[in-house]
Amino acid sequence: MTATMVKEASPPAPVHPDGARGRRLRRRGRVIALLFVFPALLLLGALVVYPVLFSVGRSLFDASGNEFVGGENYAEMFRDPTTLTAIRNTAIWVVVAPTLLTGLGLILAVLVEKVRWATAFKLLLFMPMAVSFLAAGIIFRLAYDEDPDKGVLNAAVVSVHDAFEGTSSYPTARARDGEGLTKQADGSYVTGADVSPGGTAALGLVGVAPKDLPGDARPAAAAAAGKAGSDEVRGVVYLDFTPGGGGKPGVVDREESGLPGVTVEAVRDGKTVAGTTTAADGSFRFTGLDSGSYAVKLPSSNFAAPYDGISWLGPALVTPAIIGAYLWIWTGFAMVLIGAGLAALPRDALEAARMDGANEWQIFRRITVPLLAPVLTVVFVTLVINVMKVFDLVYIIAPGPVQEDATVLATQMWLVSFGGGNNQGLGSALGVLLLLLVIPAMVFNVRRFRRSQR
């Protein structure tokens, strides 16, 4: 029997049930994940995607929404002076506010590390974040009020100004027409008739309410009755008004009060040769005068209007004033984020620099800031996105007459669409423009976050 070698065929590899089962499990997991994500996607589509698409479509129609106008609304944006002002103000916000906030946050974060009660200090600075923009706008609208009796900033400014410059006591005072005093172009008053040494002058003023007289004011009758010496000129400045009626204009009556604290000058040939201030009864005198004629002058400083402070919400300062309110709210946010980054810095690098003899400024500039650059960039870009959408503060703080001077893209979009313009086509175009400006900053932030995650 010849031995034959029988080559046995190898059996086929069995199909492992786990392969198909694994695919089914993965497919099932995707379905479950989609079911869980679906509500979020639905909300995202309803609240973000649909409004964006609708706004893009609406921006291609006229104000009524019935006639297709193509890119006319986009062209109109750049022809409208108010929209150009909004774009300019938005650019100012984007450049100034994030830069200041990032700088302030960095400085405060570094300084807070050296403060004993650092946590309490951080809490104090972060507390404005708990205040809504509406409430903050009302607070700063009152703080910026031009009336020093209401606005705390102008109250402080007026107090400092008056401490150095002083203020007039009789801003409403004036002379009666035809009663011996002539008003000059600079607001001062000069006697029409010259006075010689040995003579007297009675200078009557009106326009001052008796209740506004200084507390030390005395009756002027006795001062008016005094006699001048041979080398002096005497006189009285008085309120030419008798309470309760009666009295004669231009005559010092018994019930009429002197005006204390009034500056009086003796003028000769256009030059001031002597000056004094009236006493409690309004009397004054110039002594040692040479013979000749003199005019008596009441300088305009006696009647200057009181200093009312700074017009914070005027056309020139309204945007910086609103940015100041924004800084008050967001400085704590920047400080806390940068402080978190500062706490994660490698301390050995800082200590090595100190051991090498570097001072604190060199450490801050050459080590701390470069190491914090990623954190500073994230804070800056986040604030750029935020300021592009600022609306509440601008709308609340800026008064109606200067609303156009302070407007930004977000407020202009609302005003054009709903605030009286009723042109939702143009308003939608402004919304699309704002979206296009925000998207690059958002993409930059997301990419940077992903790189940091990797």
UniProtKB/TrEMBL annotation:
TM stretches of this protein: 31-53, 91-111, 123-144, 325-346, 367-385, 425-446
Record flagged with keyword Transmembrane: yes
Pfam family, one: BPD_transp_1
Region named Disordered: 1-21
Chain coiled-coil ranges: none
Topology term for the membrane: Multi-pass membrane protein
Alphabetized UniProt keyword annotations: Cell membrane, Membrane, Secreted, Signal, Transmembrane, Transmembrane helix, Transport
Keyword Lipid biosynthesis (UniProt): no
Localization (cell): Cell membrane; Secreted
Domain ABC transmembrane type-1: 87-445
PANTHER family, alphabetized: BLL4140 PROTEIN, DIACETYLCHITOBIOSE UPTAKE SYSTEM PERMEASE PROTEIN DASB
Family from the record: Belongs to the binding-protein-dependent transport system permease family.
Protein name (record): ABC transporter permease subunit
Organism placement in taxonomy: Bacteria, Bacillati, Actinomycetota, Actinomycetes, Kitasatosporales
